[in-house]
Design a protein that fits this description.
Number of helices: 9
Shape: globular
CATH class of the largest domain: Alpha Beta
Order of helices and strands: HEEHEEEEEHEHEEEEHEHHEHEEEHE
Bound molecules: flavin-adenine dinucleotide
Distance between the termini: 26 Å
Helix content: 25-40%
Radius of gyration: 20 Å
Strand content: 15-25%
CATH topology of the largest domain: Uridine Diphospho-n-acetylenolpyruvylglucosamine Reductase, domain 3
């Protein structure tokens, strides 16, 4: 069977072959996708997925590509980019396709006087990607997207299923969708009635708070998740001089950026990848970085933090095509 022909017959001229994934990731890293398809509707998304399953070729779902590291070898299957773009705001209820840009949706909700999404304003990527990873701002009150979800509509085992929030298992940078193969088609949210001017001020505050982050350089955002504090007294023994410790303990997390900074790693470079001097949890592509450079840097950081503090960092970034 000619897979390319079968895919083209089913998906039409929008099917791309050997598409460089570096053009679809915020890191600007990643080899070619053997096949690449942009789904502009939920039906197209489901159809592309079903065709790939029938042809027994592997599939990757890509949102905005802002939290992924794609291998230098690329991906020998079909990458489906989610770009369904409808959204509806009705009273406090917001229903959004997975492919809607999150920042755009935040601005739209603020513009009609709804409150709740303001802490999400600087989170790049799609609504689907945000739901998948429960994106948000640690420290902000109800600062995660999962805090506002009523239900998520997914494609699961050949059916469209509405998953109520209580079943989504939202936690810090976590959800059910990280552990199954659901494809997120859309999400329903319930926000609060707010004051438009106050929300706009909040949005400005959250945007300016990000000025210490290297938004101008290609990256995948924070590479590691913050570390849960299980035993505060043990942490106090490890870092007796640290002024910010009480603040971290109150939040229940040690910021990964702070740990990397304490390990003296800010500014370190390997190939084209650098630990940002602005924010140590960002690895930035300073020119021609390869996925291999990132993998080596991640491994080096983990080893240094483990050796110096006995703390194991975990990746937030998702590996695709490895
Ligand atoms: C400068 C910068 C700042 C950032 N700041 C933050 C921040 O403050 N808080 C935060 O939480 N994150 C932050 N991030 C990380 C990233 O923006 C978020 O994780 C974002 O929600 C990822 O969305 P995405 O659409 O780009 O997902 P992608 O990177 O495309 O995908 C991420 C994962 O989600 C899966 N996925 C995506 N869409 C779907 C779908 N429809 N169905 C099923 N699976 C899907 C993918 O397969 C992949 O495993 C930042 C990133 C950058 C570059």
């Amino acid at each position: 069977m000619d897979i390319s022909l079968e895919l083209r017959n089913n998906l039409g001229e929008k099917l791309l072959v050997n598409e460089p994934l570096k053009d679809h990731t915020n890191f600007k890293i990643g080899g070619p996708a053997k096949y690449f398809f942009t789904a502009a509707t939920a039906d197209e998304l489901v159809k592309a997925y079903q065709v790939a399953r029938e042809l027994k070729i592997p599939v990757i779902i890509l949102g905005g590509g802002t939290n992924v590291l794609v291998s230098d070898q690329g991906f020998a299957g079909l990458v489906i980019k989610v770009k369904n773009q409808d959204y509806k705001i009705d009273g406090l209820k917001v229903v959004s396709d997975a492919g809607v840009n999150l920042g755009f949706l935040v601005q739209k909700t603020v513009a009609v006087g709804l409150s709740g999404f303001e802490p999400l304003v600087g989170v790049p990527g799609s609504v689907g990607g945000a739901v998948y990873g429960n994106a948000g701002l640690p420290g902000a009150v109800q600062g995660f997207i999962g805090d506002w979800v009523k239900a998520v509509t997914v494609f699961r085992e050949n059916k469209v299923v509405r998953v109520p929030a209580a079943e989504c298992q939202f936690a810090y940078r976590d959800s059910l969708f990280k552990y199954n193969s659901d494809i997120i088609l859309s999400a329903e949210f319930e926000l609060m009635a707010g004051d438009k001017a106050a929300s706009q001020e909040l949005v400005k505050k959250y945007i300016s708070a990000r000025q210490n982050q290297p938004y101008h350089l290609p990256s995948s955002g924070c590479v590691f998740t913050n570390v849960p504090i299980v035993d505060a007294s043990e942490i106090k023994q490890k870092f007796p001089q640290e002024e910010k410790l009480e603040q971290f303990i109150a939040r229940g997390q040690l910021p990964a950026s702070w740990l990397i900074d304490q390990a003296g790693l800010k500014g370190k470079t390997m190939g084209g990848i650098q630990i940002s001097g602005q924010h140590a949890n960002y690895l930035v592509n300073v020119g021609g970085a390869r996925a291999e450079d990132v993998v080596m840097m991640i491994s080096y950081i983990k080893q240094q933090v483990r050796d110096k503090f006995g703390i194991q960092l975990q990746e937030e970034v998702r590996y695709l095509g490895f």
